[in-house]
Write a structure and sequence with these properties.
The protein is about 40% helix and about 30% strand. By secondary structure, it is of the alpha+beta class. It folds into two domains: about 35 residues; about 140 residues. It has a seven-stranded mixed β-sheet with strand order 1-2-6-7-5-4-3. It has a two-stranded antiparallel sheet with strand order 8-9. The relative contact order is 0.17.
Length: about 200
């Protein structure tokens, strides 16, 4: 009877060890999948954003950066959320045309909480342009990920510059088809990257 019990105990230990190894492998695979899917967002979050001016345009795609928005030529696209019960729409993001340090123009997509300040920056930009003020005083530090604009967004981006009087040739010379999406780290919204917080 004692031999049978020790064999049974040995068998249970072996099964428990196999289950623990399988669980470890599954957890490890899930963590690797999360990192790859999120474009290594937790690592980018730990490293912090790089200054936009330190990155060349060729390396823009999916970079986590910080930029100071203190000038803007205006909004070119809004993103809405609609409450199906009340059929009420709310602007949750607004995209603006901003200059880069190398005298190009790109997009920046601002979250709802900063839209009012971004609109003030646009007003101050035009006041400065018309010499009503010495220089804009409002600014937003935008942290997020640089993403290539999709075709629809780029069309709105170009249309807004055409509205300002720029020709297609001029736009092709200074437009960068990237948008800095505030609050995104890699492919995920920073609220989804709770892995490290």
């Amino acid at each position: 009877m004692e031999i049978y019990e020790s064999q049974m105990l040995l068998l249970l230990k072996k099964k428990g060890k196999n289950i623990a190894i399988l669980r470890t492998v599954i957890i490890f695979a899930l963590i690797i999948t999360y990192f790859v899917y999120s474009d290594f967002a937790p690592i980018k979050l730990i490293q912090g954003p790089a200054p936009l001016e330190d990155i060349s345009v060729a390396d823009y795609n999916n970079q986590y950066v910080a930029a100071e928005m203190n000038l803007s030529l205006g909004s070119y696209m809004d993103t809405f959320s609609t409450d199906e019960k009340t059929n009420t729409s709310t602007t949750i993001r607004s995209a603006y045309v901003i200059p880069t340090n190398d005298e190009k123009l790109m997009g920046v997509s601002i979250v709802e909480s900063d839209i009012e300040l971004a609109n003030r920056i646009v007003d101050e930009t035009y006041d400065w342009w018309e010499k009503k003020i010495e220089y804009p005083t409002s600014s937003i530090e935008v942290k997020g990920t640089l993403q290539k604009m999709d075709d629809e967004e780029y069309r709105y981006f170009v249309r807004s510059m055409e509205y300002l009087g720029y020709t297609t040739e001029e736009i092709n010379g200074f437009a960068i088809p990237y948008v800095l999406k505030q609050g995104y780290i890699g492919k995920l919204n920073e609220n989804a990257v709770v892995f490290w917080e």
